[in-house]
Amino acid sequence: xxxxxxxxxxxxxxxxxxxxxxxxxxxxxxxxxxxxxxxxxxxxxxxxxxxxxxxxxxxxxxxxxxxxxxxxxxxxxxxxxxxxxxxxxxxxxxxxxxxxxxxxxxxxxxxxxxxxxxxxxxxxxxxxxxxxxxxxxxxxxxxxxxxxxxxxxxxxxxxxxxxxxxxxxxxxxxxxxxxxxxxxxxxxxxxxxxxxxxxxxxxxxxxxxxxxxxxxxxxxxxxxxxxxxxxxxxxxxxxxxxxxxxxxxxxxxxxxxxxxxxxxxxxxxxxxxxxxxxxxxxxxxxxxxxxxxxxxxxxxxxxxxxxxxxxxxxxxxxxxxxxxxxxxxxxxxxxxxxxxxxxxxxxxxxxxxxxxxxxxxxxxxxxxxxxxxxxxxxxxxxxxxxxxxxxxxxxxxxxxxxxxxx
Length: 406
Ligand code: ADP
What we know:
Nucleotidyltransferase, domain 5; six-stranded mixed β-sheet; 15 helices; 14 strands; 37% helix; binds adenosine-5'-diphosphate
């Protein structure tokens, strides 16, 4: 079975083609055949295309703002030139889409129907930066590959069973009924990491209490117990929770009232500042990229302040997740910062010594992939995992397709 996974963002789009044998019961037998990306963010009116397959890297530029035109140019490379892995697009059986917001209704991966598309469209008001491009991705694939079955995999779904006390905000109850509640995000990654950890420990996931730390440009924690997320730091939107690259995370809502009343800022200006000009970037004045901040730390006081504040918020909220779990067996670090930044893991784990967390400095320094970096005496296992949302989506599509055909 050949499954194309599409992760369509507002300024970029990643796609990966996987092969999973039809008759294979274990979806672990999964091969990445081809990956491609389109980046619209670097130059106005220009799409940067990149494809990797057959050990070859192919790059090109298209002068277009039309996503369908860029996508056609990218997908041509599935069948043409050194990167070709297919004779024709018709060989693609299914397409899996990462859809950021599934609201309260969509708690499982779902075949795309007109009803599902209109639900994704209705949820645009809750995820204005993500759901429009996710929907556009689905519609473009209907045009390019009308015969392939499409599946929507929701980033909110893994958190859909968090208890009401964690989901509800202490606001008028009617607002909760109207959908103002914690949804949580990065669910595909948190679920993948929790399952991968259990596999690496050779233990049932249901026996473990985990805090998974997805630290990328966006960052969130999940408290995982009995195989489900029971608490998470992102909320109604991906703005709540941890301090991030350019997002502020949790702040006093009174600040927003103050900005509206006293500074006369508009909703759009506040949105832009809290989402794009805050976090590491806002405090350091340099960048939202952890690499730039840590490199500057020695001489630059604000870079140091940004780093220390990031660690403070990270540890404070790990503490909150541990309180929700009432214990901790495993701490997992994943995504760009979590996988690569030894200094972030070291600073965080030092502060978590009170929980019995102890890591091997040498193992940590090497940023190993999919390994336990805790010392044998540590009462908490600490994993560095390479998250792979696209692979997880392909596995989910495979499972759904198998369930339908048996
Ligand atoms: P996204 O959330 O956009 O998917 P990623 O998970 O790829 O992002 O994380 C991107 C971030 O990872 C970058 O902004 C950068 O801060 C961080 N990062 C990547 N490599 C390193 C590294 N070697 N050291 C520290 N941080 C890194």
